[in-house]
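COMPLEX REQUEST
Ligand: nickel (II) ion
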Amino acid sequence: MALLPILEYPDPRLRKVAAPVTAFTPDLVRLVRDMAETMYAAPGVGLAATQVDVHKRVIVIDTSEAKDELLVLVNPQIIAAEGEAEHEEGCLSVPGYYDRVVRAARITFRAHDEHGRLYERRADELLAVCVQHEMDHLVGKVFVDYLSPLKRTRLTAKQRKKQRLAG
Ligand code: NI
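STATUS: Structure written out below.
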């Protein structure tokens, strides 16, 4: 197992579009384990492969209190969405920044686990937010893209400055 470095906004690699997983291999199982370890260590409730510079449609999520309900989404698809809800979001790629985003309130998604098993699940509240947030990463989208241009410009400048100071 290994902790993977997480890309930070506005790194251009966060804009890459992930390719579907075509084979369920031991390498995929290892990637999922490393991503889960990285997410739990951060700590965070979700991580998309894009954020660790692997451009494949793979996501790990755990929104449970006890951090013992790992959800693996390989090639996820949202097959139904309804309602609207606004929640405060954060992102491991935008450390220290939180803001409100409007998304579908309830979704049904379909995905494979890391062994290739297909499953379907309904989600609301934090899990619904998290699935939509992480699926955005797979198409090169970051939650701050939903903010006003002014807020985003300020945030980008702040992040660039911070990254320069960090060397
Ligand atoms: Ni994120």
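REMARKS: The CA atoms of residues 19 and 56 lie 5 Å apart. The domain at 12-166 is CATH 3.90.45.10 (Peptide Deformylase).
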